[in-house]
Write a structure and sequence with these properties.
about 500 residues; about 20% strand; binds 6-O-phosphono-beta-D-glucopyranose
């Protein structure tokens, strides 16, 4: 049940940046529109850039109008509750100014000292800002909550994540820290919990006795954009697999939690991360990991150069823009079931799915009369776009004999006509305001995910050149990834862009 929100201030560090304009402000605006954020919650943007309240509002107005061109009046009303404070985030004086401003705003608007600090800054500031805030006592919850949302990347490997956690936990309780992974905020990802644990019929099948393989992927049609500085240092495994896709895998593979609360759910996903078989040797990695980089080609009719032609990328960069990894989970439920995880940029289309491929019938009954001798049921959970769930099964064609066809039954979010899908950021900001960290990553889980990924990254960094396969933009990715699945007789689902069949 939704709790009534306490009044307070959302303080966004890095307020002049792209994420604030593109994702955070639209999400907060939408929460205002739905009255989830009462009038008594205000927003304070903070950064080094030179703005005052008015010029900052103007910048935010432009961003919001792009998405909601007809809602100028509502936007302006919302922006009257948005303020700006310029500070030098490296200097003590800056935080003293910030503290004064917060006090003054709370007094004028009659607000409690409830502060949600959103760090939408370069990761190097994840040390600096929380420490400075704590120094001024703004971590002390005696007069209201003090919470921090931290964007990814949370560390660059296990060691740095541990160090960052240790640093933050010196000043804050774990319950005050919200490590954001926006995939967990997606409606379809949350619905996975409902699908699995509110329906009795799927759970008995959800194991190695009935499932042949699981595929979890986030394919993107976009390329690098203007993010060379960040992306070329990180690559697809760090950018997407260490966080978003492993979190998804955790939800797909977890045991039913003792309760539907943050503590119990996060305990179960942690156990999955702890049970993922670690890659122990170079051979192991070569067998189970495919990396790729996009070359020139056309995506949906738009033709562009390759990754190495992008601005800011070296002509000999070996950074992977695609990765496919075969994981195994060493526990009773998932013994020897491959979990194929993949992601890539400039693929043929944007689509994220979880695909459960069930085993074929033990005996192919209709083999003489049907082309598909071994029919396998497939359950597809479409994370985005065209969100929904589809289960395929075999059906008999009317008439003599037993000619069978693959058909499906489905649920499509578009059928919930009256409800629009909230964005991941809307959901997550609201949860943080309510103090619910179920959909945020816990310190131990983040470290465990790095522990899985670290050996792969080390290998890729050392042998990137020899491991890297190239794929044309607009394709399904490198054929080496198809070969990896073929070794065990499996194939990728390469979905068509239309998920819901038109009636
Ligand atoms: C971000 C990655 O976390 O997720 C981006 O840094 C990626 O590289 C994005 O494009 C994908 O998010 P979504 O919600 O569009 O699937």
């Amino acid at each position: 049940m939704q709790k009534k929100l306490a009044n307070g201030v959302i303080v966004i560090f890095g307020a002049s940046g792209d994420l604030t304009a593109r994702k955070l402000m639209p999400a907060i605006f939408s929460l205002y529109q739905q009255k989830d954020l009462s009038k008594s919650n205000i927003v304070l943007g903070v950064s080094r850039s030179e703005f005052d309240d008015e010029s900052f509002r103007q910048k935010m107005q432009e961003a919001l109008l792009e998405e909601h061109p007809k809602e100028k009046k509502a936007i302006d009303k919302f922006l009257s509750q948005v303020f700006y404070q310029q500070i030098d985030v490296y200097k003590d004086e800056g935080y003293v100014c910030l503290q004064k401003r917060l006090k003054a705003l709370c007094k004028t608007h009659k607000l409690e000292h409830n502060f949600l600090f959103y760090l939408s800054t370069p990761p190097s500031l994840y040390y600096e800002i929380p420490q400075h805030i704590a120094k001024l006592g703004l971590n002390d919850e005696h007069d209201g909550y003090k919470r921090i949302i931290i964007e990814k990347p949370f560390g660059t490997d296990e060691q740095s994540a541990q160090a960052l956690n240790a640093h933050l936990l010196q000043h804050y309780q774990e319950s005050q820290l919200f490590r954001i992974d926006h995939y967990l905020g997606k409606e379809t990802v949350q619905n996975l919990l409902v699908f699995r644990f509110a329906n009795a019929i799927f759970e008995p099948l959800w194991n190695a006795s009935h499932i042949e393989n699981v595929q979890i992927y986030a394919n993107e049609a976009i390329g690098l954009g203007s993010r060379a500085g960040y992306y070329d240092q990180n690559g697809a495994i760090r950018d997407m697999i260490q966080n978003h896709l492993l979190q998804l895998l955790g939800i797909v593979a977890m045991e039913p939690p003792a309760k539907m609360d943050a503590y119990s759910i996060r305990n179960e996903t942690l156990k999955v991360f702890q049970s993922i078989r670690r890659f122990k040797s170079a051979e192991d990695i070569k067998e189970n990991v495919v990396t790729g980089q996009y070359q020139e080609g056309c995506v949906q009719g738009v033709c562009k150069g390759g990754y190495r032609d992008e601005e800011g990328v070296a002509a000999n960069s070996t950074t992977e823009t695609y990765a496919a990894i075969r994981f195994f989970i060493d526990n009773w439920r998932w013994h020897d079931v491959p979990f194929y995880v993949r992601t890539g940029k400039r693929l043929n289309q944007r689509v994220s799915e979880v695909v459960i491929n069930f085993k074929a019938t033990p005996h192919p009954f209709f083999s003489q009369v049907q082309k598909i001798t071994k029919f396998k049921n497939q359950l597809v959970i479409r994370i985005q776009p065209d969100e929904g769930i589809k289960l395929s099964f075999a059906a008999k064609e009317p008439g003599s004999g037993f000619k069978t066809h693959e058909v499906d039954m489905g649920f499509y979010y578009s059928d919930f006509a009256q409800k629009s899908m909230p964005t991941a950021y809307e959901r997550l900001i609201l949860d943080a305001l309510q103090g619910d960290n179920t959909l945020f990553a816990r310190n131990d889980a983040v470290e465990a995910c790095w522990n899985i990924i670290d050996p792969i990254i080390q290998y890729v960094q050392k042998h990137g050149k020899s491991l890297l396969s190239f794929y044309p933009s607009g394709s399904f990715g490198p054929i080496e990834a198809d070969k990896m699945l073929a070794e065990l007789g499996h194939t990728w689902r390469n979905p068509s862009s239309v998920f819901k069949q038109k009636k």
